[in-house]
Amino acid sequence: MDLSRTARLAARAVSARTARIAVVATAVILPAAALAATPAHAVTDCTVNGVHRSGRLIEGTPGDDTIVCSRVEPGTVVDAKGGNDTITVTGEMDGDIRAGGGEDAVTVTRSGRVGEGGSVDGQGGHDRIDIDGIVDGRIRGGQGGGDTIHLTRHSKMTGHAGITGVRETDTIVADAGCDIARAVRDDTEGVADAVKAACMA
User: Fold this and answer.
1) What's the rounded Cα separation, in Å, for the pair 155 and 182?
2) Which residues form the domain of 15?
3) How remote is the C-alpha of 42 from its chain's centroid?
4) pLDDT tens digits, one per residue of 4-43
5) What gap in Å lies between CA 5 and CA 11, rounded to an integer?
6) pLDDT band at 57 (very low <50, low <70, confident <90, very high)
7) Whole-model pTM over 0.85
8) How far apart are CA 77 and CA 5, in angstroms?
9) Residues 102 and 162 grouped into a single domain
């Protein structure tokens, strides 16, 4: 019997089995790798006084707060509560921001966007809302009256946008070059807002 030939045949059989195992292993591993490459679903991402917060309800304190949100999911409420709060939106905002009582400052930065389902509500106190980004949702002055809504020349209003005063006399200021004319709505309480907009024509 040719032992060398037998050894060669055995080696080929082992090699073939190893190749089949490698193919099966690759077939099992590849789908897992593909799943791992699927991007995770975006979640609400805010900080309150430097502490990370997520979930359906982001709450401030009764005092002065600094709230920064890079993402607010639909159905999420950011409630600053009392105090003179500073709220900054730096990314996509599809939930609701409620400034609460106090003299609050809300800013939508140039990288920020108030989505079609999103809203910013000044609520109580004399608030200032500065918009430097995109508005596809609703911006409302607070119920306390005397609020200022400022739209910079970089702000963009889509066809769904609504800029609204709510009670007493609010001021809507628009820098030259901004896109606001179709977005300003009448005061829901019937009191005319003082609109000073170089780009309203």
Assistant:
1) 13
2) 1-38
3) 10
4) 555 555 555 545 554 454 444 443 444 444 444 444 556 8
5) 10
6) very high
7) no
8) 77
9) yes
